[in-house]
Structures are given as structure tokens and as C-alpha cells.
């Protein structure tokens, strides 16, 4: 049924870069066969899922939304892919995304933009727009995304779906193509809080193949999602998360959600986190710096595309020609910015300062979590904007991330849930809930209470 739905609507939405029809049907048949043999089935047996094209899948193309990886077939599964298979999930295919997860609109994909199912002329958010759109258009009930600065939460917000950025280190990054390693985190996307919890519990947990993976038991997020409650919770509202640039209808729905939390028995606490206003500047130095290092591996020798390999060019020229052709404008912009920020003589002024701001943001959160259990804010300051509107204005694009970036910089956990439609345009608004590291269960408890 889901493959048929993809066949019927994805021509308009472009959520999938690759539909693995044969593989999905084979996995589904295998689940049936196991059931017939009376074998124990995995916890999500037979449930279809859309996988962001940033995760390696053995024998199935993986592009990261980039031309430079066109034609590359990974020889191994990411840990997330493997855990999904072990849970007997049926992987329908790989979803569209901004190239190497750099963007907030899915327009920087080398394979064309994804449309927002609520209004096909608008962006579905990014970088994980394909995963979010596949849920909103009912092409899949579950999806996987990655969140470096908001790429799970902001697409969830603008498509009216649920997205969770787990605690940094909570879900293995092994086989997840690196953008900014100290910020990247894979996580679940779904249409309900409980669905997200069921998926989260399958992919989470320690992995010795990822040195930043946390060797601690994952909190019981499924129980939290089943027992939604805000009663007695202390909920922080950060004053820096409002003001200029925030759409009226977004703030209206946000304020109503805060009221609802109060009615459900939560204690609302006003907070100030002054360093959050510097998060955007710090993030857009740290993420490009790490990306300039991570993307050095795309040298035309090891993976995918190779240009100018006709015997008339040196190896260095082949690398340069391949990068010229294989990388899009946003990726080139960030590699240049990051290389500059890391170069000797500038390191302290840019990267060093950004790291100091990162520490201040972490301290602001620590202070906040001495007073409250969770912090809430809008997920994105606006609803989905028209495709094309911000492509020539990177700063306007980056501003979409103001509310989501602090959690990546601090490494704590955060969720976006739908909180109604903005009155002025009838488009979905997202509520962000943030909890300390390794307290992901609080997100689910509060999220389920509001749902
Ligand atoms: N929009 C942010 C960026 O462009 C975040 C992307 C992400 O989370 N992968 O970097």
C-alpha cells in the first residue's frame, strides 16, 4: 500500500531519491515467512520506513543528496540501518535532503527540491525535507532523519509531523555520512509521539563503532510516551526565543501551547539564556569548519564521481575537477568558510571564539535545567516559505534555525510536535521541547501530554 502511495504522489512531492521496491517487498516477505515459521519477530516487524539518504545501506545507492556520490553503492550498513533491519522494519527507500545535510529547505539537493505536501509551492524544511514530506503525504508511517542544527525538528514543524533529536551520542553515527561530527545526530520522525518513541527505542543505544556513543542505558522513552503527563513539570519559557523575525501566528500557537501546559498542571517559569542570541554565529562557524575537514575525503579517488579522468590531467586536477562538478554552491560556500575559519592566524578569532560561545550556551542550559525540567519554544520562527524565496539569501535561510541550534551546540535532547496551524496562512506550526542530555524521556512525557 505504501509503495502504491509513493507511486501515486511522489512525482509531485519528490520525497524519495531512491525507492527500493524489490528490497522492500523482499523484506516484507521475509517477515511473513518468519511469522509462518513461528520465529520471534522484531519489535517493528513489517512497518515501512523512509530512510534519509545520509545513512549507508548495503547494496542500495546512497548519495547524501550530492552529485559527488552519484552511482556509489555502499558495501556496508550504517548501525541505524542494521538496527532497523534487526527490528524487521521494511525500508521503502532513501529520502531527499539538502546536499550533505546543509540547508533548511531541501532546495540544495542535487536532485531537485522536495515539495511540502501541505502546499506544493512551499518548502518542506530541511535538510530532512524528504523524510518529513514522506510522513506528511502518508508515503511512510515512520522515517529517519539527522539533526546537526535542526534538520529533523524544523522539517517536522513545517510539515505538521513529529521529529526528535536524541541526546548527542544517543544514536550511533557509524555509517551516517558526516557533516559536522560534534553536532550530527540521527533520530526518529513519525506522525505521533508514541510512534517516534517506538522507533527511537529501536535505533538508540551504545555502539562501540562510534567513539562518541554513550555507554549508558537509554531512558524508557516508550513508557514515557504511553504515560504522557505535564502535571508537576517545571516548564521554562526562554525570553530570547521571541521578537523580531517571529511570525505572529507562530507565536500565537506557541503561547496557546504554554497555556495548555499550565492547564495540564505544569508550572511555567520565565527564563533568560543570553548566549542563545550568539548561537547562530557560533554554529555557522563550527559546522562549516568541521564540514571542511569531513568533506576532504571526497577526493575523486575513493567514492562516486570522477571527472577529467581521461589521461590528460594530474591526480590533483582530477580531484579539483570532480569537486567543481560534484559539489553544489552551498557545500562549496561552507568548505571555503570553514577552511578560512580554521586557517592559521584566524583560528583563535573565529573557530576558537565560536567554541567559547558554545560553552556559554551549554552553561545557559545547565543553569536553566537547575530551575526547570524542560524548556519550550517555537521550533521554527516561521511556517513553510515559498520554494525559491530564500535560495539567493543564505542569511535568511540560516535564520530558520535560531531556535533549534542551541540544543545541538549543547548536545541535549529536543523534540518538535505539531501545535496547530498559523491563522494567517493555514500552515503547520511546531512546538519545540528541550530536555537535558540523557533525559530524552521527558520530551516524550510532555509531548504525549500535549498530543
Ligand atoms: N539548517 C542547518 C544547516 O544548514 C542545519 C542542518 C542540519 O541539521 N543538518 O546547517
Automatic annotation (TrEMBL):
E.C. no: 6.3.5.7
GO molecular function: ATP binding; glutaminyl-tRNA synthase (glutamine-hydrolyzing) activity; transferase activity
A GO cellular component entry from the record: glutamyl-tRNA(Gln) amidotransferase complex
Keyword line: ATP-binding, Ligase, Nucleotide-binding, Protein biosynthesis, Transferase
Residue ranges occupied by any Amidase domain in the UniProt entry: 1-443
Keyword Protein biosynthesis among UniProt keywords: yes
This protein's record includes keyword Protein biosynthesis: yes
Location of the active site: 52, 127, 151
InterPro entries with a match to the protein in the record: Amidase, Amidase_CS, Amidase_dom, AS_sf, GatA
Gene Ontology BP, a term: translation
Catalytic activity, as annotated: L-glutamyl-tRNA(Gln) + L-glutamine + ATP + H2O = L-glutaminyl-tRNA(Gln) + L-glutamate + ADP + phosphate + H(+)
Family: Belongs to the amidase family. GatA subfamily.
Role: Allows the formation of correctly charged Gln-tRNA(Gln) through the transamidation of misacylated Glu-tRNA(Gln) in organisms which lack glutaminyl-tRNA synthetase. The reaction takes place in the presence of glutamine and ATP through an activated gamma-phospho-Glu-tRNA(Gln).
Subunit structure, interactors included: Heterotrimer of A, B and C subunits.
Protein name, as recorded: Glutamyl-tRNA(Gln) amidotransferase subunit A
Gene for this chain: gatA
Amino acid at each position: 500500500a505504501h509503495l502504491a502511495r509513493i507511486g501515486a504522489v511522489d512525482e509531485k512531492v519528490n520525497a524519495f531519491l531512491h525507492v527500493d521496491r524489490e528490497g522492500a517487498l523482499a523484506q516484507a516477505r521475509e517477515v511473513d515467512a518468519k511469522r509462518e515459521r513461528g520465529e520471534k519477530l522484531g519489535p517493528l516487524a513489517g512497518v515501512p520506513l523512509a530512510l534519509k539518504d545520509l545513512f549507508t545501506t548495503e547494496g542500495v545507492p546512497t548519495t547524501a543528496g550530492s552529485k559527488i556520490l552519484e552511482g556509489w553503492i555502499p558495501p556496508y550498513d550504517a548501525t541505524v540501518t542494521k538496527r532497523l533491519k534487526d527490528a524487521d522494519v521494511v525500508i521503502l527507500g532513501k529520502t531527499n535532503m539538502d546536499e550533505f545535510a546543509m540547508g533548511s529547505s531541501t532546495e540544495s539537493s542535487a536532485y531537485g527540491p522536495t515539495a511540502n505536501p501541505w502546499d506544493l509551492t512551499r518548502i518542506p524544511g530541511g535538510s530532512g525535507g524528504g523524510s518529513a514530506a514522506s510522513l506528511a503525504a502518508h508515503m511512510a508511517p515512520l522515517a529517519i532523519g539527522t539533526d546537526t542544527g535542526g534538520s529533523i525538528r524544523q522539517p517536522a514543524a513545517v510539515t505538521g509531523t513529529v521529529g526528535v533529536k536524541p541526546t548527542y551520542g544517543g544514536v550511533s553515527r557509524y555509517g551516517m555520512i558526516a557533516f559536522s561530527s560534534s553536532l550530527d545526530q540521527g533520530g526518529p520522525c513519525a506522525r505521533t509521539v508514541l510512534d517516534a518513541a517506538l522507533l527511537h527505542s529501536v535505533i538508540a543505544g551504545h555502539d562501540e563503532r562510534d567513539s562518541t556513543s554513550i555507554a549508558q542505558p537509554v531512558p524508557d522513552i516508550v513508557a514515557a510516551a504511553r504515560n504522557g503527563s505535564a502535571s508537576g513539570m517545571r516548564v521554562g519559557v526562554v525570553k530570547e526565543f521571541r521578537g523580531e523575525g517571529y511570525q505572529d501566528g507562530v507565536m500565537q500557537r506557541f503561547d496557546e501551547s504554554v497555556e495548555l501546559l499550565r492547564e495540564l498542571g505544569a508550572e511555567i517559569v520565565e527564563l533568560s539564556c543570553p548566549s542563545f542570541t550568539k548561537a547562530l554565529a557560533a554554529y555557522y562557524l563550527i559546522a562549516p569548519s568541521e564540514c571542511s575537514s569531513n568533506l576532504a575525503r571526497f577526493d575523486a579517488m575513493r567514492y562516486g564521481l570522477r571527472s577529467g579522468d581521461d589521461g590528460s590531467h594530474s591526480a590533483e586536477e582530477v580531484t579539483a575537477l570532480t569537486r567543481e562538478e560534484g559539489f553544489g554552491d552551498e557545500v562549496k560556500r561552507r568548505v571555503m568558510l570553514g577552511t578560512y575559519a580554521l586557517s592559521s592566524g584566524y583560528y583563535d578569532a573565529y573557530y576558537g571564539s565560536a567554541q567559547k560561545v558554545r560553552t556559554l550556551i551549554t552553561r545557559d542550559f545547565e543553569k536553566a535545567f537547575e530551575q526547570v525540567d524542560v524548556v519550550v519554544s517555537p521550533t521554527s520562527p516561521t511556517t513553510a516559505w515559498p520554494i525559491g524565496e530564500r535560495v539567493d539569501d543564505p542569511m535568511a535561510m540560516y535564520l530558520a534555525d535560531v531556535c533549534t541550534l542551541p540544543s545541538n551546540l549543547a548536545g541535549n535532547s529536543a523534540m518538535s510536535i505539531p501545535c496547530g496551524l498559523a491563522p494567517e496562512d493555514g500552515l503547520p506550526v511546531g512546538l519545540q521541547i528541550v530536555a537535558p542530555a540523557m533525559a530524552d524521556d521527558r520530551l516524550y512525557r510532555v509531548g504525549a501530554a500535549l498530543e
